Amino acid sequence: MEYFMPSVLSCRTVIWEACSLLIQRRPDFAHLFRRFQHFVTPPDQRNEVMGSARQEFDRIERGRKVVGPLHLRADDLREACSALPNLKDFEITFTRCPLDNDLLREVFDYPSCRKLDRPQTYSNLNAIIFALHGIPLSSFKVDRLPLEVFRLPAHRTHWYTHAQAFSSLDTLNLTLDPSGLQGPGSAFRAVNGLGRILQLATQLKKLKLAFHPYSSENSKFALSFRELFYDFTFKQLTDLTLEGVSCEEDDLKDFLARHGPTLLRLRLGGRGLAKPFEVSLGGIHLYEGTFKSLFTGLRMKLPKLERLHLEGIFECEHHDLPSHEAYNFYPLTNEDWEEVPRPKWVRSSRKTINCLPFEQYVLFGGPYPGNALTQQSY
User: Fold this and answer.
1) 63 and 57 Cβ atoms separated by less than 8 Å
2) In 10 A of CB 373, how many CB atoms?
3) Distance CA 151, CA 294 (A)
4) What percentage of residues in the chain have a pLDDT greater than 70?
5) Is residue 331 within 8 Å of 311, Cβ to Cβ?
6) H/E element holding 35?
7) Integer Cα distance of 369 and 376 in angstroms
């Protein structure tokens, strides 16, 4: 009697083909396939991939040490910026992978792997703000700005002194990382300092404030708009994006209502710190009030509103009451209001929905759509 013993290679081939077939039917499982692929790859090939990634990382690290921190060349940076008479748009990001290696790019998709030297980041950002002093910018964007920089008196004063260029801005996009704050007192001082800087941008037409807490990727940042702005109003604001915020309904509604005479487009929520295969995490949390009351109020307080977009996990408190609401929105458009294809991570088991019924309710009225869509699971 003969027994057939499949080789390791043939087993890997069968598994590979089965996984490939599964991915064709369920694209949202692609991230699981990539993880499994690491284990079915032959050892010599796997070592080659890992070695290549390590060499690329070491090369970048050596180059970074040779160049040195940006803040040590603050005068050179200011001279360079001053020599650009047409400089109008400035963007700083710590969230784009600077490497071409596929494995390192995949690792970078996980927010927990994006390490940040926070004290050095404070100093580098200070050098940039110093270099931009007196330059009439049109747009300024920072992705992953440590919020605690506005709590520390020396850094806060430096920004307030040299951020006078903000007075010419029509677009300001700040994605803030509050994970360096310790306790409510620290958060209050940071929010107060941030508010002082924001109020320098008196000519703003487009504003985005997003909070991405890297220490707790699924959480929202507790924000009081009264503490941030008091009664300040951006007189020309047409576009507003708020993401990753936990707030009171009335506080949020009052802030939005102050901009009712000019606001045309409103985006609440976003991707947050979601991995490519996860649902959007950057929604809105109400620790007091309901979304039904919020959206009903906006119908009357934002008479010029043309577009409303919701993305991420939206939830209010009082889970045990009939007024509890929870929604899981997938995006319909990007931040430029261009339509985007339905994300691969959308599937029936997650009960994700789009925001079109809520947009129509706020703009045109009718029955509140949340009555049939509450208690979404995610």
Assistant:
1) no
2) 16
3) 31
4) 86
5) yes
6) helix 30-40
7) 13
